[in-house]
């Protein structure tokens, strides 16, 4: 068993790593890698965990998206969701718990992320979780960089929505949103468009960029 790495900041994200996707297989001795505290920008954390042999990642703290958020809580929320998106993009299993809010839209905009182990605070928790699991597939809402442009493909709402973004300052805003960013630090026109199209979600004064990045389309692009 690997000892937990010491946390260097109070808002470090706590995760536990396992070597297999299957929970039953994780019961075998030697399948536990150990615990980690993830500090600072998280863009490289998912790849680092994958390269360490992790195939199942357990996020320790529930993700509560309800109620007013101060700056620290909002920043931690978008960092956690960005990490879950990065892990999903590598097809890792993610055990996490979420309280999304009571409206159907509150969880459906998260439906491209690996399904959680529990959904809290909704009228029919098991029904929401079952629908999430049935509707989930890899690359449901993703973006990919091309030469001088960025393309988003979003199927969270059953039909394909495709966005090609070639404005340099929009692309710079998306880069800044890798771990979330304060809305006031981004171009106002980009923020307005991202929020209108549900590509970004506001938590407190921070924005979370919902699509996760992929290096290539997993199927023929006309299929996706």
Q: What do you see in this structure?
A:
Strands 2-1-3-5 form a four-stranded mixed β-sheet, with helices on one face. The longest helix has 19 residues, at 71-89. It is of the alpha/beta class. Residues 1-7 and 220-224 have low confidence and may be disordered. The protein contains six helices and 14 strands. α1 packs across α2 (71-89). The protein is globular, with a radius of gyration of 17 Å.
Can you tag this structure with a few keywords?
224 residues, 6 helices, globular
Question: Can you lay out the helices and strands and say which pair or pack?
Answer:
Layout: E1 13-18, E2 32-38, H1 45-51, E3 56-59, E4 63-64, H2 71-89, E5 93-95, E6 97-99, H3 104-108, E7 118-119, H4 125-135, E8 141-146, E9 149-154, E10 161-165, H5 168-176, E11 181-182, H6 188-196, E12 200-203, E13 206-209, E14 212-213
Parallel strand pairs: 3-5, 4-6, 6-7, 8-14
Antiparallel strand pairs: 1-2, 1-3, 8-9, 9-10, 11-13, 12-13
Helix pairs in contact: 1-2
Describe the sheet with the most strands: 4 strands, mixed
The residue-averaged pLDDT reads 90
> Rg from C-alpha positions?
17 Å
Structure summary, number of beta strands: 14
The coarse overall form would be globular
Strand content: 25-35%
Strand and helix order: EEHEEHEEHEHEEEHEHEEE
Neighbour order of strands in the largest sheet: 2-1-3-5
What is the number of helices? 6
Helix content class: 25-40%
Poorly predicted spans: 1-7, 220-224
Distance between the termini: 41 Å
């Amino acid at each position: 068993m690997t000892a937990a790495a010491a946390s260097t900041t109070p808002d470090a994200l706590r995760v536990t790593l396992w070597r297999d996707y299957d929970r039953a297989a994780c019961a075998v001795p030697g399948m536990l890698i150990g615990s980690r505290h993830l500090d600072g920008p998280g863009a490289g954390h998912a790849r680092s965990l994958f390269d360490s042999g992790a195939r199942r990642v357990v996020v320790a703290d529930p993700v509560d998206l309800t109620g007013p958020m101060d700056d620290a809580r909002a920043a931690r929320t978008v960092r956690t969701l960005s990490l879950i998106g990065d892990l999903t993009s590598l097809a890792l299993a993610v055990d996490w718990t979420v309280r999304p809010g009571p409206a159907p839209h509150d969880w459906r905009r998260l439906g491209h992320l690996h399904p959680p182990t529990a959904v809290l605070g909704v009228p029919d928790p098991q029904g929401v979780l079952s629908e999430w699991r049935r509707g989930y597939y890899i690359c449901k809402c993703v973006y990919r960089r091309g030469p001088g442009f960025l393309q988003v493909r979003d199927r969270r709402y059953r039909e394909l929505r495709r966005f090609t973004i070639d404005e340099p300052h929009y692309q710079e805003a998306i880069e800044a949103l890798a771990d979330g960013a304060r809305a006031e630090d981004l171009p106002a026109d980009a923020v307005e468009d991202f929020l209108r199209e549900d590509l970004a979600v506001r938590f407190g004064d921070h924005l979370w960029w919902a699509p996760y990045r992929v290096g290539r389309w997993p199927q023929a692009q006309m299929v996706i």
